[in-house]
Design goal:
Chain B: This is FA complementation group C. The complex is a heterodimer of chains A (343) and B (578). Chain A is built from 17 helices and two strands. Chain A has 343 residues and is mainly α. Chain A has a two-stranded antiparallel sheet. Chain A is elongated. The chains are: A mainly alpha (343), B mainly alpha (578).
Chain lengths: 343, 578
C-alpha cells in the first residue's frame, strides 16, 4: 500500500509538472511514454478501489497532502481529485497540450497520422499518434451521427448507459455496503440537475442493456430499486421518454412495470376536467403530462405486454364504476380513458 | 474551375490564387450538413489534399511564420475552418496534412507578437481537437464515470457502425409508389457520408455492408464518389474488406475489376513463376469466385483475356494463365450450382455452343478408354468449323468479319487446354493411322488459321516431328542413330525462309514421348538432353515438364509411380549443364 501511495503521489506531481513547468521543454518521446504509463497506472488504481471505502479514504488523504504541497510550490496549480485519477491520461494530455513549453517534437509525435489502414487504434499502449486517433474517432462519430436520425435512445446514450452499468457493477462488487453504490448514483445525478433530460435516455439504455451475468442483472436491479425510491427521478424519466421506450422498459422489468402503472394511475387521479377546453388536464403544472400522452402510454404498454390489457381495463372500469358508473364524457377520468383506449 | 498549376520555384506562390476558392468552400461546407454537402466535400477531397500538400511544402520552405502569414493572410482562417469539418478530419490523409500544416506554422522560438499569438492559437486548436473539455453533457457524464475519452468515442463509433449496418440491412426499395422516395436514398446518403471513412478500420464492416447491399433501385445507387474512393484505396492496397465485400466491389466498380485482372496477369506471367505458383495465385485472387457468382463479372474478365490473347498469341505463359483460370472458375461454379453445364451458354455467349459441354467435361470425369474418341470428335468439330469459315472467306473476299468464329473456337480451346495436353499424351500411344486428328488439334492450338498462321504447312511439319519421335522411341537398339536425332533437332531450329513450328509444340511432344514411351529411362533421358541442349530450349522444356507434372498431380489423372519417377529424372536431365 505504501508503494501505491508513493506512486500515486509521484504521478500527481508529474501531472503538475506537465501542466505548469517549463521542464517539459526537455521531454522526449520516452519521457512522455513513461508519463502516460504512470497515468494509466493511476486509472487502474482508481478502477480497482473506487468502491472500497477504506482504501479510497487512504488514497484521498494522500491526494490531499500532495495537493497541498503542490499548491504551495505552484500557485496556479489545480487540485487533482480522486475522481480525476480515473481519467488520469486525459488530464495529462490536456495539461500537456495547454503547456506553452511543450516542444514541437512532442506535438508532432502525438499528432502523427498514418494514412494507411494498418493503424490499429485499439492499442492503448501507443502514445505516438494518440491524438490523431482520437480526432479520427470523434470525427467519424460526427460524420455518422446524422445517418441515424434522432432515435429516442441514441448510440451515445446507449454507450453511456453501458458504461454506467459497468461502473455501478464494479462499485457493487467492491463494497458490501449498498450505500456506496447509492452515493455513486446520487452523485452522478446531482451533477446533472440541469441536464436531467440528457440522463433519462441514459438510464433507459442502462436498464435495457442485455445482461449476460448474474452480476449485471444485480446491477440493473439495484438501479431499478434506486429509481423507485426516488419519486422525482422516476417521474422525470416517465415524463421525458417516449411511450415506446417506457413500454420496452415495462416489458423487460416487472418492477418498472408496476411502478409505471402506479404512476399512470396517480397522474390520472390528479387530473381535472376543464369544461372550457373540453379536456382533462393535469392539476400540477410541474409535470407536463397530457391526457393524450397518457393514453398513448397505455396503448404502447398494451402492445408490449398484451397480458396487461384485461387487467388494467378491469381496474379502470372498477374505478369508473366507483365514480358513479356514468357513460358521459367529462365526469370520470377513468371512463374517459377507457373510451379513448377502445377507439 | 481552373486546373491547379504545379510550379516548382518557391518564388511563385500559385496558392495565393487558389486560397479564396478553398476558403469559400470551407465556409460553405461549415454552413450546411446535408448529403449534398457531403457529396461536394468528397468530390473535392482529393484536390484539397493536393492543395494542402502544396501548402505544406511552401510553409516548410519558409523559415518564419510571420513571412508565411504575410504571403498567405487567409491561411489561418482556412486551416481553422477545415479543422472543424469532420468530413475532412475523419479521412486519414487529409487529417495528416492538415495537422502537419498547423504544426509547421508553430514557431519554436517566436520572434514577435504575431508568432506568439499564432502559437497560442495553434495549441488551442490542437487541444480542442484532441480533448473533450468543451463538449456538453455526454462528455461530462463520461468524466464523472471516469471513462477515458478515447475509449468512449471508440465505443460510440462501433455502436453507430453496428446500428447503421442494421438499418441498411432492413431497408428495401419499394418500387410501388413513384412519388414516395424509397429508402435507397438513405443508402446513397450513407455511402456519400462514408467516403472519408473508407480506410478507417472500425468502419470497415459498414463499408462492406454498403457494398453488398442489394441495389434493386433504378434511381439510386451507391455514390460515385464512394466507388471511386474505394477504387483508389484498393489500388494503394489500403482497403480492409472481407472476401464477399471485395467481390461486391468488383461487381460494382469496373475500374477496380480491371485493375485486379491486370494485376493478376502481371504477377502470374512474371519471370520465375512456375505453373504451380500460377495456380496458387489464381485461386487466391478471389477472381474465379467472383466470376462464378456474377456472370457480368466473368464476361468482363473474359473480354480482357480475349483482348490480351489477341496481342500475345504465342505467349505460352499467358495461355497457361487462361487455362488455369478457367479450371478454377469452373470449380467455383460447380460449388455454386449443381448443374454448372446448364449455365455455360450464359458465360460463353460467343463460343460455339456445341463445343461448350464437351470441352468443359474434365478429362478426369471420363473413363480412360473414351478419351480418344472424345478428342476425335472435338477435333473433327473444330476442323469442320474452320473449313466452313475458310470457304466463306475464299468465296467472299470482301468479308470484313474476319475469322470471328474460328477465333472464338480457338479462344475456348485455349481456355480448356487441358484437353490439348491429353491429346499430346495420346499421341505417344497412337499409331500412324489414328494420329491425324490429334495432330490436327495440337497444330490448331498453336497455329489456328491458315491465312495468318499457315496451319496447313505447320501440320505437315508437326506430322514430320511426330514421325521422327515415333521411330526414335520405338528403336530399342543401341547406340542411337545419330542422323535420326540430328534431323529431329533441325526441326526445332528457326528457318529464315518459312514460318517455323512453335517450339513448345515439338517440345511437348518430345517430353510426352520421353515420359510415356516404352524406351528405358536412361535412353529417354539421353535423347531429351541432347535435343534440349543442342537447340538451347532448356527453359521452355522445363516449363512444359512442370505443366505435365502439375496436371498429373491432379486427382483423377492416370499416372503411376513409374511415370512420376521418369518426370523427376527428365527434370534433372534438363537442368544439368551439358
Amino acid at each position: 500500500m505504501e508503494a501505491v501511495l508513493k506512486n500515486v503521489g509521484r504521478t500527481v506531481e508529474l501531472l503538475a509538472v506537465a501542466a505548469h513547468s517549463g521542464v517539459v521543454n526537455e521531454w522526449d518521446e520516452q519521457t512522455v511514454t513513461r508519463a502516460f504509463h504512470w497515468a494509466r497506472y493511476c486509472e487502474h488504481i482508481y478502477s480497482r478501489f473506487h468502491g472500497n471505502p477504506v482504501i479510497r479514504g487512504v488514497l484521498e488523504k494522500q491526494l490531499q497532502l500532495t495537493n497541498h504541497s503542490l499548491k504551495e510550490a505552484l500557485p496556479e496549480y489545480n487540485a487533482v481529485s480522486f475522481l480525476d485519477l480515473g481519467r488520469c491520461q486525459d488530464l495529462l494530455l490536456l495539461w500537456l497540450l495547454n503547456n506553452s513549453a511543450l516542444p514541437i517534437s512532442i506535438m508532432k509525435m502525438l499528432f502523427e497520422t498514418k494514412a494507411s489502414a494498418d493503424s490499429t487504434s485499439s492499442n492503448y499502449e501507443d502514445v505516438r499518434g494518440l491524438c490523431s486517433q482520437i480526432i479520427q474517432c470523434k470525427s467519424a462519430c460526427t460524420v455518422l451521427r446524422p445517418l441515424l436520425g434522432v432515435p429516442p435512445v441514441g448510440a451515445d446514450a446507449e454507450v453511456q448507459g453501458e458504461m454506467l452499468m459497468e461502473r455501478l457493477g464494479s462499485t457493487l462488487s467492491q463494497s458490501s455496503d449498498p450505500l456506496r453504490a447509492e452515493d455513486f448514483l446520487s452523485s452522478v445525478l446531482q451533477e446533472f440537475e440541469v441536464a436531467a433530460e440528457h440522463l433519462c435516455p441514459v438510464i433507459a439504455a442502462a436498464l435495457l442493456t442485455t445482461t449476460d451475468s448474474a452480476a449485471q442483472t444485480a446491477s440493473q436491479d439495484f438501479l431499478l430499486d434506486w429509481l423507485q425510491s426516488r419519486r422525482g427521478t422516476l417521474q422525470h424519466v416517465c415524463t421525458a421518454l417516449p411511450s415506446k421506450v417506457l413500454a420496452d422498459l415495462a416489458k423487460r422489468h416487472q418492477k418498472f412495470r408496476d411502478a409505471f402503472c402506479k404512476l399512470l394511475k396517480r397522474w390520472a387521479s390528479e387530473m381535472e376536467y376543464r369544461v372550457t377546453e373540453g379536456e382533462w388536464v393535469h392539476a400540477a403544472t410541474s409535470s407536463a403530462v397530457s391526457f393524450q400522452k397518457m393514453t398513448e402510454h397505455y396503448l404502447a404498454l398494451f402492445e408490449a405486454c398484451p397480458s396487461l390489457r384485461t387487467e388494467i381495463e378491469d381496474e379502470l372500469n372498477a374505478r369508473r364504476i366507483a365514480d358513479g358508473d356514468f357513460d358521459v364524457r367529462g365526469l370520470s377520468v377513468w371512463g374517459d380513458i377507457l373510451l379513448a383506449l377502445r377507439k | 474551375m481552373t486546373e491547379l498549376q504545379v510550379q516548382q520555384t518557391t518564388a511563385h506562390w500559385p496558392n495565393v490564387q487558389e486560397m479564396p476558392f478553398w476558403l469559400e468552400k470551407a465556409i460553405a461546407w461549415g454552413q450546411t450538413d446535408t448529403p449534398h454537402t457531403w457529396k461536394d466535400i468528397s468530390l473535392h477531397l482529393k484536390r484539397l489534399r493536393d492543395f494542402l500538400q502544396q501548402l505544406l511544402t511552401e510553409i516548410s520552405s519558409v523559415s518564419s511564420t510571420t513571412e508565411t502569414l504575410n504571403r498567405l493572410p487567409l491561411l489561418g482562417q482556412l486551416l481553422g475552418r477545415l479543422c472543424w469539418n469532420p468530413h475532412v478530419t475523419a479521412e486519414g490523409a487529409s487529417r495528416g496534412l492538415l495537422l502537419q500544416c498547423l504544426l509547421a506554422l508553430y514557431s519554436e522560438h517566436p520572434s514577435n507578437a504575431v508568432e506568439g499569438k499564432a502559437n497560442q492559437w495553434i495549441q488551442k486548436v490542437l487541444c480542442h481537437l484532441a480533448t473533450d473539455e468543451e463538449d456538453g453533457a455526454a462528455v461530462a457524464l463520461m468524466k464523472h464515470l471516469a471513462v477515458p475519452t478515447k475509449e468512449y468515442h471508440l465505443n460510440v463509433l462501433k455502436k453507430m457502425v453496428t446500428r447503421i449496418q442494421e438499418s441498411i440491412g432492413n431497408s428495401q426499395c419499394s418500387v410501388s409508389s413513384t412519388n414516395k422516395g424509397c429508402s435507397c436514398g438513405s443508402v446513397w446518403a450513407a455511402s456519400e457520408a462514408c467516403v472519408p471513412l473508407i480506410t478507417c478500420p472500425e468502419a470497415s464492416p459498414l463499408i462492406g455492408a454498403l457494398l453488398q447491399q442489394q441495389m434493386t433501385c433504378i434511381r439510386e445507387g451507391l455514390s460515385e464518389n464512394f466507388l471511386g474512393a474505394l477504387h483508389s484505396a484498393y489500388s494503394r492496397c489500403d482497403l480492409l474488406l472481407d472476401e464477399q465485400a471485395v467481390v461486391s466491389l468488383w461487381y460494382q466498380s469496373l475500374p477496380s475489376l480491371e485493375e485486379a485482372v491486370l494485376n493478376l496477369l502481371a504477377s502470374a506471367t512474371a519471370a520465375g513463376s512456375t505453373p504451380s505458383k500460377v495456380e496458387e495465385q489464381v485461386s487466391k485472387s478471389l477472381l474465379p469466385k467472383a466470376c462464378a457468382q456474377h456472370c457480368s463479372v466473368f464476361l468482363v474478365v473474359n473480354d480482357i483475356f480475349r483482348t490480351v490473347l489477341k496481342q500475345t498469341e504465342r505467349n505460352e505463359r499467358v495461355k497457361n494463365v487462361f487455362q488455369t483460370f478457367t479450371k478454377c472458375f469452373f470449380m467455383e461454379l460447380s460449388r455454386l450450382q449443381p448443374q454448372p453445364s446448364a449455365s455455360l451458354k450464359a458465360f460463353f455467349p460467343q463460343s460455339p455452343p456445341s463445343l461448350l459441354i464437351p470441352l468443359f467435361t474434365m478429362p478426369s470425369e471420363m473413363p480412360q478408354e473414351s478419351l480418344k474418341n472424345h478428342l476425335m470428335w472435338v477435333s473433327s468439330s473444330l476442323q469442320r468449323l474452320t473449313e466452313e469459315e475458310e470457304d466463306e472467306e475464299d468465296s467472299d473476299s470482301g468479308n470484313i468479319r474476319g475469322n470471328h468464329k474460328v477465333f472464338e473456337a480457338w479462344f475456348l480451346l485455349v481456355q480448356c487446354a487441358y484437353w490439348v495436353q491429353v491429346a499430346v499424351q495420346l499421341l505417344v500411344t497412337s499409331g500412324p493411322e489414328d494420329c491425324g486428328p490429334l495432330l490436327w488439334l495440337l497444330t490448331f492450338y498453336h497455329h489456328p488459321t491458315n491465312r495468318w498462321h499457315h496451319r496447313a504447312s505447320q501440320l505437315v511439319q508437326a506430322k514430320a516431328a511426330w514421325d521422327h519421335l515415333y521411330s526414335l522411341f520405338s528403336i530399342v537398339a543401341h547406340p542411337l542413330p545419330a542422323d535420326h536425332l540430328q534431323s529431329f533437332i533441325s526441326l526445332l531450329a528457326p528457318k529464315p525462309q518459312q514460318p517455323s513450328l512453335a517450339p513448345s509444340l515439338t517440345l511437348n511432344l518430345l517430353v510426352n514421348f520421353a515420359t510415356f514411351g516404352q524406351l528405358p529411362q536412361s535412353t529417354s533421358a539421353e535423347i531429351t538432353q541432347k535435343v534440349v541442349h543442342q537447340s538451347g530450349l532448356q527453359d521452355e522444356a522445363a516449363r512444359v515438364l512442370s505443366s505435365l507434372r502439375l496436371r498429373l498431380n491432379d486427382r483423377g489423372s492416370f499416372a503411376n509411380d513409374r511415370v512420376h519417377l521418369r518426370i523427376e529424372e527428365l527434370h534433372n536431365t534438363i537442368k544439368k549443364p551439358m
